[in-house]
Structure formats: C-alpha cells, structure tokens
Specification:
This protein has three helices and two strands. It has 204 residues and is mainly alpha-helical. Strands 1-2 form a two-stranded antiparallel ribbon. A hairpin with a 2-residue loop joins strand 1 and strand 2. Helix 2 runs antiparallel to helix 3.
Length: 204
Amino acid sequence: MLTATVTHITVSQVNGVRAVTVHLPQTFGAAETGTEEEKPGPSPIVPEPKEIIWTSGAFVIFAVLMRYVLYPRLRKGMDARYNLIRSGHEGADATRAAAKTEVADYEVELAGVKAEAATRIDAARRTLEAERTERIAVVNGEISAMRSAALAETEASRAAVQGQIESAVADVASRAIELAIGKGPDPTVVNRVVGEVMSVGAGR
C-alpha cells in the first residue's frame, strides 16, 4: 500500500483554467522505494563530543591564564595595596609618636619656663621689698632729721621769744614796782623772779 503525505496544495487559475499543485515531502521517494530510513536528529540534552572538547579546552586555558597570569597580577596588586596601606599606618603611627614626643618636650620646657619665671618674679619681689624697706628707712631718717631740726628751730625760736618776753615782763614789773614804792627794784632779783614764773608757766 502506497501512502503519500501532502504538505502543501496550491490552487491557481491560468487562462480561465484552474490548476491544483500538490507538494510532496522529499522522503516520499525514499518511502516509496524503501531503500533509506529516517535518521534521528541531535539530542538537545546530551552534548556532542566536539562541544565537550571545546568547553574543556576553554576551561583549561582560562584556568592556566588565571593561575599563571591573572592571579599573580591580582596578587601583586593586592600585596602592593596592602603594603601601601601598611606603610601609611606605620607612617601615621610614627607621626603620632613624634607628635606625642614633641608635646611632652613642650610641656617639659613650659614647666621649666614657668619655674624660671616664678623664680625671677620672687627675686624681683624680694628686690623690690628690700628697696622699699631701704627707701622707707631713708625717708624715715630724713623725716626724723627734719623733725629734729624743726624741733630744735622751734626750741630756739621759743627760747629767743621767751627771753624777749622775760625781758619785757621784767621791765614792766620793774616799772610797776618803781611806781608802787617810789624807787626802782634790783634788776637781778626782778629777772630771776620773772624767769621762775615763766618757767613754771611753760611747764604747765
């Protein structure tokens, strides 16, 4: 029994005559003769040997490149970055230590300067105190000398005035006694009496 599989039918009309064209598959002749069989196509799941070979070769090449080219460069870059960061940290630590040392030295110098300033201030204070004491002593001496001179001058002035007063009083007393008794008294007695009276009055 002969079986034909129709894949496409075309209907056309030429000069008023309708024609029908039937397209048969190419395997129709083989099925008719029975000499060839249909071959199965490639499996979509199982890879072909050449695909396995190409994939394995690419993986091996990529692994070799990673191991001997890419990874060493990456490792070298990572080591350089690590060394750079480490040197930066070491430099920062050194700078921090140097700064601490400088601060400590500055504090020591500052303490020395403060101590020296305090010593100088104390010395200046003692010098000023000594000069003030000496000056006060000199001024007190000058004031005492001036007071003594003033007192001596005052005593001299008073003595001079007292002598004049005693003389005047003696004259007045002599004149009064002369008027009272009609004759002049002894000047020596009058002067002595007036001096004693004046001395008693000055003592009061």
